[in-house]
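INFO batch 0412 | record 1 of 1 | parsing
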Amino acid sequence: MTRAPARTSRPRRVLTLTATVAAVTLAGALPAGAAPPASHPQGCSVRTLQGDFGGNFSGTSASAGPLAYQTLVTFHGNANATATSTLMTETSGPTRFTSTITYTVKRDCTGTLTARRSTGQTVHYDITVVADGTQVALLETDSGSVVTGRLERVRRG
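INFO prediction complete | emitting tokens
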């Protein structure tokens, strides 16, 4: 006796397709390497960022082409920070510079960061504080640049 193969019901296929589309849509809503904001029961503030954070940035700029840099940022927990960085581009480097930084952090753990570099350049970022304040995801918002980075706490302030 031959049994006919079981058929997948239409509602199950629709549910699977819907779940797949939702997952792809959600994944596409986040920039590569970005994480959704962490849940902070009390929310975030500028005080959430305190201590030394190290990390790497990479991307491209209209003036320098492909670039990468490494940085150590000291957040003071009062909307101010300082940084020491080394930049490499396809045509020059290493270029070492320092930065004075101002930043904001909203209750939802998003904010902005402005770095005034010793080279005379000012760079702007949108930031998201993640992993209970131990990491910061950054996206440069200046036209002509596509640069992302991630900082991780290396020492609490």
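INFO post-check: The longest strand covers residues 50-61.
INFO record closed
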